[in-house]
Amino acid sequence: MWKDEVLEEIYIIREEHAKFFNYDLQAICDDLRKKQANNGRQMISAPLKSRGQLHNKSLKPSL
Question: Can you give the pTM of this predicted structure?
Answer without folding.
Answer: 0.59
